[in-house]
Specification:
Chain lengths: ~675, ~280
């Protein structure tokens, strides 16, 4: 891995990272749903390691270049709209079967290859029906893009001038080469030339007509069939090939959509199957006695149907799985409906920020799991008294009567008497003669970031010599400031095999219950991930959500995942806190070790880079007026926490069982100032 | 603080284009004097609907039965107390004089009292509502010791916007279950086009473009702004355009700057507006 940035381009250019956030909003507004944005470099040959197979909803992604060398700010919008156009014009739902049905001339060309498996994309099937697939593809795209562009200009008239600007740039920067590129240039607005051949004129006219009349993707295929022979003759390709062909982005997106159709089919079959199963007569023998032979016969028929259905389902399922993994390989791992954000990272070796280096995916924790929430409820009850004691000190006093105001629900007698005196004395009286009740309010937003790295799967008491704890004890006294007034908490009888993650969960529910009573707004997130492009943030509770059964379920679903890339998680949480607009903002990070990831720094195993980045992220957060605090259950935490945050901003939990009560205590101290 | 509307007394019915059966339901509720709760996002036509209904109900009455002001609107805010609604003693020269609040006035004269954004008000106001909205139909005024029986024509209408109020400010079930609920939402593109065209007087094609902007920008709600762009804002835009402002400038002034302060959201909305307008 290299940390060096590419040298600054000298020509004017726009980077995707600069426009991504507003472009994502733009695309979501236009399309009506969230679309991922990734750079072309993330497309294909994506060496990402997948930690888990994610099923479910497919991601829908716009693939855009990392930067464009133009000064037109609207260029990315045009590129995004072209890809949204693919979806709005149903280009991606092209199916060969339908095409063959609708277009007789295609049927003559199309010879189903008995060896071709079902995994060949529909566009591949189409183009390989022609003698020069790549040429067919280019010709098809010429027509299809015309259709899409015409649609876009009709639906979004404001786009026309941006198209012109973008096309103007393309015309300037590219050199015309052959027939099809000439046709493209003409479409982009280049005037006709006298030297244009007859074939060229025919093509131009076809394009012009296509622009007006084409309605579906099959119209473009028809146009392809019509003009293919003439164009092929022009290129005079006999031996040599027009160009090597490979599957394009459109191919893959088309295949991706096909998988979704198959999945729907699969669901249908499953439904049919369960219906048939329900019809199936449970025990053959008894029924035979009643219905005789007839019953037996229909029974056999049903069994046969079920077997057929099962076979069909299994085949389809295999096909879906294979295709999905192929698509995932090409387009990157499906992130479902997780939103993604990019953040800079601090490279301390070069003293510079790496622009838009990390991608954070934000996704809700599944709540449909079987995780038991009863223990969590028990934990809330167990801590209720202690926590209440701690928080009572900072609870607002409620209503307060404010005197001498302009307007209120009651007259303020003293003020009235003074006013009367003034009037009698011939002076102008003070008009503020009312009193009113006002609520004293806390305006606090808090975010809790919980480390969900794989190491949280470790048991609380590792089998190591107990001497360790004695060694650390002295040091803790030097930092008594934060917990000088510990309440002694009765230790719960320890269950065997409790893990760090269990404690984190407990701490979170205790905290949630306490904050619910206090009325502060708070969010709870788990973070993990693997590699810079795949930092994951799991939402257990957003600040706007109510504390509910679902929250408990989500907290229960927190589970150990991958690595601990703290920097981007902190930056994302900071962003979220800034959006709340609260007067006081608190960010608490609960971890079990130092920040680390597979590519967190040039040398794997050296944690300096990660520590420095995390420290920088915390600093950025503090500069924005956020109170940060780090808590760790890692007893060797002093080494790196000292470098990451000021002394009064971190705490090491000696006895891990204390985590829940210590957390609420620190929170009370932080926000009660 | 209290905005008293008397629109409904004018000769022309306030324009309202029904989206579903809300007019019939409201009339039926009024016939039995059942209080009504209007639910829906900001600027989708709740207040206009009440004005429209109030005008129709009022014009159906005989002249001598009409209340002075047929519709009293109170825009609730977080400092609005029960006193503001019921009334208070005022200092007038050397005297302290009792002055009815809008709610008391409506209860006495048989007007419709419309409490806009009720959940914004303090909790003590919702309690007032309780005795008025069940079979008792009374309003106790503790400061004067009065127990006021509601006029037979009196009706309470409240509105609330479930979108942006936090969970803490939700209506209590005991309050909510006293009302007939009518749900409002932004109209579809076609209906909204008609509304914009009628209200602002722009051409149909412009109105249609504005309605499409509304539809697309609403896809973005919950990104820095809690509510999508309202029909009201689109009408404002239309009015600016009708007054001769260039469409893009009008949209910047009335839509883009109005709905969010977040720079990237503003930029995205501006981009959406830019590609949709001709």
């Amino acid at each position: 891995m290299t940390l060096e940035q590419e040298p600054e381009a000298i020509e004017p250019s726009i980077a995707l990272a600069d426009v991504e956030s507003s472009l994502a909003l733009f695309a979501e507004g236009i399309a009506g749903r969230y679309l991922h944005i990734r750079s072309n470099q993330e497309f294909a040959a994506n060496p990402k390691l997948t930690l888990e197979e994610s099923g479910g909803q497919n991601s829908d992604t716009l693939f855009l270049p990392e930067s464009v060398a133009t000064t037109h700010a609207s260029t990315y919008r045009v590129l995004a709209m072209e890809q949204i156009g693919l979806r709005e014009c149903d280009t991606l739902s092209f199916r060969m079967e339908t095409a063959v049905e609708q277009i007789p001339s295609l049927l003559q060309r199309f010879q189903p290859d008995p060896n071709a498996g079902p995994r060949v994309g529909d566009y591949r099937l189409l183009f390989t029906s022609f003698s020069q697939p790549a040429l067919a593809e280019d010709l098809f795209l010429l027509f299809e893009e015309t259709r899409i562009q015409a649609h876009l200009q009709r639906a979004y008239p404001g786009l026309t001038k941006h198209f012109q600007a973008y096309h103007g740039y393309l015309l300037e920067s590219q050199v015309p080469a052959d027939l099809l590129e000439q046709a493209k240039r003409w479409r982009m607005g280049e005037p006709r030339k006298l030297s244009d051949s007859g074939l060229q004129r025919t093509l131009y006219e076809a394009i012009a007509e296509h622009r007006e009349s084409a309605a579906t993707v099959y119209d473009s295929v028809t146009a392809l069939c019509e003009h293919y022979e003439a164009v092929l003759a022009h290129y005079k390709l006999e031996e040599s090939s027009y160009r090597e062909t490979d599957e394009s982005l459109v191919d893959w997106l088309n295949r991706e959509q096909r998988v979704e159709e198959w999945e729907e089919e699969l669901e249908d079959i499953n439904e049919q199957l369960s219906q048939s199963m329900a019809m199936e007569i449970p025990t053959g023998q008894e029924e035979e006695a009643v219905y005789g032979d007839a019953g037996d016969g229909s029974q056999r028929q049903i069994d046969l149907d079920i077997k057929e259905l099962k076979d069909e389902r299994d085949t389809l399922k295999r096909r879906v799985d294979m295709e999905r993994s192929a698509v995932a390989h090409a387009l990157g791992k499906s992130q479902g409906d997780a939103r993604s954000f990019r953040y800079d990272e601090w490279d301390y070796l070069n003293r510079t920020y790496l622009r838009a280096w990390c991608r954070v995916f934000e996704q809700p924790l599944g709540t449909d799991g079987e995780d038991d929430i009863a223990p969590l409820k028990a934990v809330i009850r167990a801590y209720q008294n202690t926590v209440q004691r701690q928080l009572e000190q900072i609870r607002p006093t409620g209503l307060e009567r404010i005197r001498r105001v302009q307007d209120g629900d009651e007259l303020d007698l003293n003020a009235v008497i003074e006013a009367r005196q003034d009037i009698r004395a011939g002076q102008s009286a003070d008009e503020r003669v009312y009193s009113r009740k006002e609520r004293v309010q806390r305006d606090v937003s808090a975010i809790f970031l919980v480390d969900l790295s794989a190491s949280t799967d470790d048991p609380i008491h590792p089998p190591e010599p107990r001497d360790w704890s004695n060694y650390e004890e002295d040091e803790s006294d030097t930092r008594a400031g934060w917990y000088a007034s510990f309440d002694e908490i009765e230790e719960e009888p320890e269950e065997p095999g409790r893990k760090i993650i269990d404690l984190e969960r407990e701490a979170m529910v205790v905290m949630a219950a306490a904050l619910e009573a206090l009325g502060d707004s708070y969010g709870i997130y788990g973070f993990s991930g693997y590699s810079k492009d795949n930092v994951e943030l799991f939402i257990a509770k957003e600040p706007d959500d109510a504390f509910s059964h679902t929250t408990l379920k989500s907290i229960a679903a927190m589970a150990p995942k991958g690595s601990t890339r703290m920097g981007p998680a902190i930056r994302h949480a900071t962003q979220k806190l800034m959006n709340t607009g609260s007067a006081m903002k608190v960010l608490m990070v609960i971890s079990d070790g130092f920040p680390q990831d597979c590519d967190y720094g040039p040398v794997r195993g050296n944690h300096d880079y990660g520590v420095e980045d995390t420290a920088k992220a915390l600093q950025e957060s503090q500069q924005k007026g956020i109170e940060t605090f780090c808590m760790t259950v890692d007893k060797s935490g002093h080494d790196y926490l000292k470098r990451m945050c000021p002394d009064e901003r971190y705490m090491i939990i000696e006895e891990m069982e204390d985590l829940p009560s210590q957390l609420t205590k620190v929170y009370a101290a932080l926000t009660g100032k | 603080m209290n905005q008293i509307t008397s629109d409904a007394g004018t000769n022309q019915a306030p324009y309202y284009l029904p989206i579903a059966d809300e007019v019939e339901v409201f009339q039926a509720a009024y016939a039995s004097r059942l209080p009504v709760l209007l639910k829906g996002p900001t600027g989708c036509g709740k207040t206009r609907f009440v004005e429209h209904m109030s005008w129709h109900l009022d014009s159906a009455r005989a002249d001598d039965e009409r209340p002075e002001i047929p519709l009293l609107t109170v825009s609730c805010h977080e400092d609005l107390t029960a006193t503001d609604m019921v009334g208070r003693y005022l200092l007038k020269g050397d005297e302290t004089v009792w002055s009815d609040g809008p709610l008391t006035r409506a209860v006495r004269t048989g007007a419709i009292c419309y409490l806009d954004e009720i959940v914004e008000a303090r909790k003590d106001t919702t309690v007032l509502i309780h005795s008025l909205t069940d079979h008792r139909r009374i309003l106790p005024i503790d400061k004067t010791g009065e127990l006021l029986d509601a006029h037979p024509d009196f009706l309470l209408v409240i509105s609330y916007n479930p979108g942006y109020q936090s969970v803490l400010k939700d209506l209590k079930p005991s309050t909510r279950q006293r009302f007939v609920s009518l749900e409002f939402d932004y109209p579809d593109v076609e209906t909204e086009t008609q509304i914009i065209q009628h209200e602002s007087g722009v051409e149909e094609s412009t109105a249609e473009r504005l309605a499409v902007i509304g539809e697309r920008v609403r896809n973005l709600k919950q990104h820095g702004f809690e509510e999508g762009v309202s029909t009201r804002l689109l009408i404002y835009t239309g009015e600016l355009i009708a007054a001769g402002i260039a469409p893009r400038r009008a949209a910047t002034a009335s839509i883009i700057s109005a709905i969010s302060d977040d720079a990237s959201v503003q930029e995205a909305v501006a981009d959406i507006v830019d590609v949709i307008l001709p």
